[in-house]
Design a protein that fits this description.
alpha+beta; three-stranded antiparallel beta sheet; 3 strands
Length: 71
């Protein structure tokens, strides 16, 4: 993992088209601004993990249905 130090108003650029800027810092909270093309989804990690889990469950259920139809 790369760890960078940024101050309020500073940013980092990822892959030439993603920019993450530190907008505000209050206590132990940091507000980030993310600039990305519309075709690149941006999620909070807990939301991303939930989507991944639901996709696995849906794929598993679809596989079970396909197996049932074969029998």
């Amino acid at each position: 993992m790369l760890a960078l130090t940024r101050k309020k108003g500073e940013s980092i650029v990822l892959a030439n088209n993603l920019e993450v800027m530190v907008i505000d810092i209050k206590g132990d909270q940091v507000k980030l601004g993310i600039s990305a093309p519309r075709e690149i989804p941006v999620y909070r990690k807990e939301v991303y993990l939930q989507i991944q889990q639901e996709n696995k469950e849906a794929a598993s259920a679809a596989s079970l249905e396909a197996l049932k139809k074969l029998m």
